[in-house]
Design goal:
The strands form two sheets. A two-stranded antiparallel ribbon has the order 1-2. The protein has a two-stranded antiparallel sheet with strand order 3-4. β3 and β4 (about 195-200) form a beta hairpin. The chain has two domains: about 1-30 and about 150-218, no CATH class; about 50-145, no CATH class. By secondary structure, it is mainly alpha-helical. The chain has eleven helices and four strands. α9 packs antiparallel against α10.
Length: about 220
């Protein structure tokens, strides 16, 4: 059971650890036709390109056939989303991890681990070099590719929280909550933010919203 009397430092640890979530695939009945996250517009989309056009795929991470077919997502992960790439240590097919993440996200625009990796790169390494697409671009492409995929909005919320864009984080979390309802048929995700503390979905949403509002108050 989760504690309810969080200290200031516990809230900070929770927010810092939010990107370490373990995510389970979910099938959602609700569908939305895009969202005004970060006020993205036509200019951003022109720069980011069309997520439906690629020589490989594009495949949907939440499609079980595409996720398990050895000639589809698994082969992309085998060669381009290695442990070294995901940990941002080095590339697999080239010198740079971003090159393999680029390949992965063009082939699988809503791949959660790859999205999380580019977000981490931007935050932890002081930004993404201009010769690669930005993390904002990859999230924009993922949202256009599968606007009903709540995991994308959850990850974008994590990214926005780490960038201290708390209004955008809260908006994205609220969209994720609508698309990832707490159902008994699956565990939507767990978050580890302190030794041996795990929280169920409904409790976590309250923690996230409380934490973001707490940060906004300064």
């Amino acid at each position: 059971m989760c504690k309810s009397n969080y200290t200031r430092s516990a809230r900070a640890r929770m927010l810092a650890a939010v990107t370490a979530m373990g995510l389970a695939a979910a099938t959602v009945a609700t569908s939305i036709q895009g969202a005004p996250i970060a006020n993205r517009g036509d200019s951003l989309r022109a720069v980011c390109g069309n997520p439906f056009e690629n020589g490989v795929g594009p495949w949907d991470y939440n499609n079980s056939e595409e996720r398990t077919n050895p000639q589809k997502i698994p082969i992309v992960e085998q060669f381009h989303l290695t442990r070294e790439v995901e940990s941002l240590e080095r590339g697999s097919t080239g010198a740079y991890a971003l090159g393999d993440l680029d390949y992965t996200l063009r082939a699988v625009p809503n791949h959660p681990r790859a999205l999380n990796a580019v977000a981490r790169y931007d935050v932890e390494k002081g930004g993404i070099p201009p010769n690669f697409r930005s993390a904002e671009c990859w999230f924009d492409r993922a949202m256009r590719f599968r606007p009903e995929d709540g995991t994308v909005y959850l990850l974008y919320g994590n990214y926005m929280a780490r960038k201290d864009r708390l209004d955008d984080a809260l908006e994205s979390y609220q969209l994720a909550k609508k698309l990832l309802p707490d159902r008994s048929s699956y565990t939507c995700f767990n978050i580890y933010f302190h030794r041996n503390w795990f929280c169920n979905c409904e409790h976590l949403w309250k923690q996230v919203e409380t934490c973001v509002r707490f940060r906004k108050k300064g």
